[in-house]
Amino acid sequence: MTAASQWLHATTGRIATDPYSWMQAVHWIHGSGLYTNPHNDGPKTLNTTTIAVAQEIAALKECRPSIAYLARKVKLSPRSVKYHLRMLRETGLLVYRSKGTRIAGVGGRASEFERTIPVVFDEALGIRTVGEGVQRRPVGIAEKGRKAIGKLAKKAARKTRRPRRRTPVSSGTRCTPMQVGTSGTSSAGSTHSPSESKLASGTRKSPTEKSSKRGPRKLNKVGRRYQLARELIQMVPWLHNASVPRVAWIVRHVA
User: Fold this and answer.
1) Average of pLDDT values for 14-19?
2) Which of 102, 142, 146, 160 could cross-link 108 (Cys pair, CB 3.0–4.6 Å)?
């Protein structure tokens, strides 16, 4: 839809009678592949993030979602939210009832939208309507569209979550597991890690046997400082609730 058609008085669609039927239209537009972004910025087509934004809009009693509100709810940047709102308007799913205003130093008022169902949706599913203009109401559906509307009903009832972005790991910082044993197969191609129970059971032996003949471990200055702090806390009654690191710092010159 052109920018001039993205207003309530100019749209050819009808006002959605409820958020549930509007989400059916959103899912149908998403799955139809009819929309391609004509701009050089933003997503090329409607995606699961667009549906997640639409779900937040559908949950509003008064359709006046601010950019900051949607960005916080869907965990997107304000610019990304604007992209998805633009796509919903250009597909005829959202139209302006009033456009937001901005006053320097004061802020502004968020745009008020109306959730609408495009004519192409009614025609594709054979939905019959009565009335004129945006106030048209559905009164029936052709037999060919009953199966499709049933599938859309299941999608509309299901909560869609925006997929999480995986942070790519550069080849220069990737950690490669150490190869165990004398086998010639590299372990770098396997993503399976042994369970903690196997690691703790002692069944996996290190190729280099470690000597068990060790004498008592000697404390360094920091260790001796903490040891003295614990002894003082046990011996001095008024230090019982004191922190070991704090006492250790206090006695650092005599430890």
Assistant:
1) 94
2) 102
